[in-house]
Structure formats: C-alpha cells, structure tokens
C-alpha cells in the first residue's frame, strides 16, 4: 500500500477523535492504515514565520502531523481574505458578500507555495497525495513546478458554483486551470461536477470526454464522491448512556418536543431564515405555544471576518424577536447557543430531537443531516427537515425536503414533522439509515483512494 500524504488547511490535533468532523475522521483513518503525513497550517500566527517557514512534526501512531505557522499577513490574505471572503461566498452563490483583492489572491498563492516548498522534499516517489478543499486549489501546480510527479488527488468539500458565477472571480481561469494539474478531482455531487465541466467548456474551450479532461499536456479525471459520517460510531454514541448535558437538556424540556439545529455559525446555513420560520409557525399554529423548544447550537467560526460577526448579530436578534413575541415566563421558544458540544453528547441531543431542522441555503454535503439520521432510535425515530440545496438531499430521500427561502414551505414541513405518525417516521428513517450504513465515511475514503490509485475512475452518479 503506498504511503498517503494528506494536505488540508488545518490539521487536527493527533489523537483527538472526539471533537473532529467528517474530514478528520476519514483522513486520519486512511493515514493510520497506510502510514503517512498530514500537512497543514497550525492555526498559529507569528511575525517572521515566512523568513524560513519551519514545519513542526508530531508523530502519532504511524502518522506524521506536520504543521506550519503563518505570518499575520499571510493568514489574513490567504485565509480570511481570498479563501473566506472571495472563494467561500462565491462558491456558495453569494456574490454580494464576495470581496476580491489582488493582494489577497497573491497571499493565497504565496501560502500554497509555502506548503509546496515544505512538502516537496518530504516526498518519496510512490507516495500518493490527497489535497483537501478550496484553500489549496493551486497546490498541485506548485508541486508540479517543483518536479513532483506523484499522483495527486483533490477533493472539494464545498459546492462548485454555476459557470456564470465562477466567472465573476477576477483571474478565474488562472485559478480553474490549476485543477488540471491533479490526477483526480472529486466533487460532493454530480451537479457541482457538471458546473465545473460546463465552465471548462464554455469559458476555456476545453473538451471534456465523460469525466476525462485532456488539456495542456495533462490528463485529469473527475468524479463524484459524496462524503459521509462514521455511521457506526454515531449509532454507538447515541446508544451509550446519556451524558449529564443530555440529561440536563431533557429535564429542561419538561416534556416539550425538541426541534434541533446544529451548524457552524455561517451565513450559508440559513439560520436567520430558519428562526423566522419558527416565528411564523407559532403565529399560524398557536396550539404549539409552550409545546416545543427549538434549540440552535452554532459554535462561532472565522470570527475575524466581518460577515461572521454580522450573522451572529442577525441570529441573536431573530431569536430575541421570536422569544419576545411568543415566549412566556416559563418558556422561550428558541434557545440559541454558540458553545461547542462534544460529539458523543451531540449524538444524544440528535436522538432527543423529534425534529432535526437542517436548512442551509447552499451546502456541499452537510454532515449534520447524516449525523441526525444515524443517531435516531429505530423504534421511535425523529423527522429530518432538510434543505433541497444541501448535497445530502440527493441521498436522504426520506427527509421532508424544503426550499429554505420559502418560509411558508418550511413552516408547513415543521407542522408535518411534528404531527407525523410513528409508522411513517419509521418508513422514512429505515432506508436512510440503511444507505448511511452502506455509504459511510470509510467507504468515501476507500472510493476516493481507489480511484486515485487505479486507472479507471468509478464516478458515482449520486
Ligand atoms: C464543510 C462543507 C461538508 C458542529 N457543531 C458542533 C460540531 N459540529 C460538527 C458537526 C459536523 C461538522 O461540525 C459540520 O459539518 P457540515 O458538513 O455540517 O458543515 P461544514 O462545517 O460547513 O463542512 C460541508 C463538509 O465540509 C465535509 O465535506 O459536508 O458541506 O461546508 O460533523 O457535527 N461538532 C461538535 N460540537 C459542536 O458544537 N463536536
């Protein structure tokens, strides 16, 4: 088995299994099997880090976790700037929130070069390299420029935008062409891959035969690899004895039904619209007053970016409005917390929720929707209300699928969810769980690595 080299913006702490998300679980698993290296930013920012960028290596099991510090300027331009104020909003179809600065793009390219400079000398000829996400699109080009001939795969965790939106990005073709330097480029869903193919054809006049691109003297294959969760682990967590936090929550509900949402605090997740729908629901159905509680868990992220401070304010205000209007001395319809909850406890909370409300405006996949399903009690499962614009909507057909922009439609789905009889809940839940058992995060990793190491890509048509 060849050695695997994973590269992502951040590298999780070695051995920390319980706070990490899907990407960490999958990559760690793959690395521990084959032995390997995981390279990324340490998250630390310090002056002078660019003079001689040094990498710190921690060995855990048979994996080297290699982290690099960045200067304040590099972190600002690469991470806050180009990755999160240009690419993230644009790829989530929010051009109004997108800010382009040539300076940021230069910073983005510079940090990719730093990663390439550190990685190239570590490589052995038969290593395979797996690069993750929009922060690192140019990395293969930088490695190829240094003579690296190894197989390099790229997986995009977020959507690829419609061609006319991608074309808003200044120098868009310069960015897109980098992807052809990978041997395999993976997308979460077929529509995202199709967007990329349409862009190549329309804007760059590049011919794509099926999933093969032959251009600029290189061959690159495309494929669809929907990411998933560690289904068994979630089932195991959900069935374990309840943590004290889960018990506290249940006691505090006093028999009311729970509608639960869990998201990183991000404007792509549709949180204010969701809270507005809860307000409208209470307005239309007064019989539900004091009968349920909506809990929104939303740990803050990317705090240095103004749009993220703004979304926090917006969500807090929306929750305040609904609570002010409909709450009572002993009941607040919406609870909003920014605290992060441990994964095992999260599984208990999912299981305690009669309804899981997952309504992003646009989402590459959305692991929360899968975690919610996996955590349910098979004899009395809850109902998933899921945005049709989450990548997972293509797999979780038993969910009540909604358009998150259509507040009345979400209200209707909430009512249906609260009133759904047990037999229908079970009938919707069972095929979804079966699917998640078959297509878990280990299968995702295995499919991608197999496609990268073998010559025929098996593109799933999810
Ligand atoms: C990107 C793409 C794609 C959240 N709050 C807590 C917590 N979480 C965990 C969830 C879940 C993960 O974070 C979030 O994953 P999502 O997939 O829902 O969303 P993004 O963070 O935007 O992820 C997305 C994903 O990459 C993978 O490819 O699905 O489309 O945007 O695992 O459980 N975990 C803990 N406490 C919290 O409070 N422990």
Sequence-ordered SSE layout with sheet pairings:
Layout: E1 4-10, H1 22-34, E2 36-45, E3 55-60, E4 63-70, H2 72-91, H3 102-119, E5 128-132, H4 139-145, E6 151-155, H5 163-166, H6 172-177, E7 184-187, H7 190-204, E8 208-209, E9 212-215, E10 218-224, H8 231-239, H9 244-253, E11 257-262, H10 271-284, E12 292-297, H11 306-326, E13 334-337, H12 343-352, E14 355-358, H13 367-374, E15 383-387, E16 400-402, H14 407-419, H15 422-438, H16 441-453
Helix pairs in contact: 1-16, 2-3, 3-4, 8-12, 9-12, 10-11, 10-14
The protein binds GDP-alpha-D-glucose.
Give the distinct bound molecules: GDP-alpha-D-glucose
Shape: globular
Which residues sit in consecutive blocks of at least 5 with pLDDT less than 50? Answer: 456-462
Assigned CATH superfamily of the largest domain: Glycogen Phosphorylase B
Q: What is the number of beta strands? A: 16
CATH class of the largest domain: Alpha Beta
Quickly give the structural class: alpha/beta
Kindly, what is the distance between the CA atoms of the first and last residues, rounded to a whole number of angstroms? 28 Å
Mean residue pLDDT: 93
Strand order of the largest sheet: 3-4-2-1-5-6-7-10-9-8
Proportion of strand residues: 15-25%
Name the CATH architecture of the largest domain: 3-Layer(aba) Sandwich
Radius of gyration: 22 Å
Return the domain count.
2
Number of helical runs?
A: 16
Outline the biggest β-sheet: 10 strands, mixed
Helical fraction equals 40-55%
């Amino acid at each position: 088995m060849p050695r695997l080299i994973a590269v992502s913006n951040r590298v999780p702490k070695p051995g920390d299994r319980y706070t990490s998300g899907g990407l960490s679980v999958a990559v760690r698993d793959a690395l521990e099997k084959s032995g390997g290296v995981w390279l990324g930013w340490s998250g630390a920012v310090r002056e002078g880090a660019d003079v001689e960028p040094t990498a710190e290596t921690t060995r855990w099991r048979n994996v080297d976790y290699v982290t690099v510090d960045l200067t304040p300027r590099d972190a600002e331009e690469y991470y806050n700037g180009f990755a999160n104020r240009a690419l993230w909003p644009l790829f989530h179809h929010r051009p109004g929130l997108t800010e382009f600065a040539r300076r940021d793009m230069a910073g983005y390219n510079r940090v990719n070069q730093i990663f390439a400079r550190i990685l190239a000398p570590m490589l052995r000829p038969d290593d395979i390299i797996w690069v993750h996400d929009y922060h690192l699109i140019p990395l293969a080009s930088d490695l190829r420029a240094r003579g690296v001939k190894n197989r390099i795969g790229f997986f995009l965790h977020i959507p690829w935008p419609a061609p006319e939106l991608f074309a808003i990005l200044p120098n868009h073709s310069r960015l897109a062409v980098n992807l052809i330097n990978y041997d395999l480029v993976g997308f979460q869903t077929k529509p995202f891959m199709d967007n990329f193919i349409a862009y190549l054809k329309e804007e760059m006049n590049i011919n794509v035969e099926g999933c093969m691109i032959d251009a600029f003297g290189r061959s690159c294959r495309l494929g669809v690899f929907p990411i998933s969760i560690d289904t068994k682990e979630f089932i195991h967590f959900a069935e374990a004895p309840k943590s004290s936090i889960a018990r506290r929550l249940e006691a505090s509900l006093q028999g009311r039904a729970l509608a639960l949402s869990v998201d990183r605090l991000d404007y792509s997740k549709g949180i204010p619209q969701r809270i507005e729908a809860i307000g409208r629901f209470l307005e239309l159905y007064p019989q539900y007053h004091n009968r349920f509680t909506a809990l929104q868990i939303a740990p803050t992220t990317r705090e240095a970016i103004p749009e993220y401070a703004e979304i926090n304010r917006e969500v807090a205000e929306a929750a305040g409005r609904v609570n002010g209007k409909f709450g009572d001395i002993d009941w607040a319809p919406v609870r909003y917390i920014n605290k992060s909850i441990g994964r095992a406890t999260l599984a208990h909370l999912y299981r305690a929720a009669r309804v899981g409300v997952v309504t992003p405006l646009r989402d590459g996949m959305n692991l929360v929707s899968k975690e919610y399903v996996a955590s349910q009690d098979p004899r009395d499962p809850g109902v998933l209300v899921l945005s049709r614009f989450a990548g997972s909507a293509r797999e979780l057909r038993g969910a009540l699928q909604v358009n998150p922009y259509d507040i009345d439609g979400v209200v209707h789905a909430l009512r249906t969810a609260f009133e759904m009889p047990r037999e229908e809940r079970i009938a919707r839940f069972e095929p979804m769980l079966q699917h998640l058992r078959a297509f878990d995060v280990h299968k995702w990793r295995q499919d991608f690595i197999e496609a990268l190491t073998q010559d025929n890509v098996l593109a799933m048509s999810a």
